[in-house]
Amino acid sequence: MAIDPNAFMATMVRRVQLTDADKAALTEAAAWGKEIAPAMAEIFYDYLGRDEEMNTILNAVEGRVHRLRQTFVDWFAEMFTGMDNWGKSYAERRWKIGLIHVRVGIGPQHVVPAMAVVVNAVRQKLRQDSKSEALGDALGKICMIDLAFIEQAYFEVSSQAVLQETGWTQALFQRLIATGAASM
Ligand code: HEM
């Protein structure tokens, strides 16, 4: 494991500024989150299915879409409950979700717009159901934390693979990245 998911979670909570008030708003709305999760999954997989490349990934394995609908529902509901108050279990679960996406070849170009779809769908539903702006803000923050886990997993797996294969040090790798970026 390249990073400590729990430490990463703590850093993200601080940087995204997920406060105790945000956590309270989420847990208070946990029943609502569970209720709307299947509709959110519907919107999400409908969106992925309309993109040729993502649709191919989704249908590459028999029964995958069906299973994913349920895992999405669980994922969505967990944002509200925080599992263990957004602690170790939450962090390890998010890290695992990140690694699974890396394994199936899903990168930032897929995940970032997909999370935007989730955020927009939730915003619409919040308005329809006359939910507070505070809840919307809290949801926006936790979605960004979850997104950061998937993005970080992509970076960690890629860099660990290069380091293992080449035996380079972290410092040399960073220098090569900086040089490469400068020449682009
Ligand atoms: C908002 C971003 C996303 C969220 C929250 C999300 C959520 C999840 C969850 C919870 C899992 C299950 C992990 C497990 O089995 O433990 C999963 C797996 C997966 N997701 Fe996503 N996902 C996102 C973006 C995407 C995108 C953009 C694609 C593109 C096609 C995708 C395709 C997949 C695939 C193929 C798997 C693995 C299925 C398997 O194990 O057969 N996901 N995702």
Automatic annotation (TrEMBL):
Residues 11-157 form the Globin-sensor domain. GO terms for molecular function: heme binding; oxygen binding. It holds the Pfam family Protoglobin. This is Globin-sensor domain-containing protein. It comes from Thermosynechococcus sichuanensis E542.
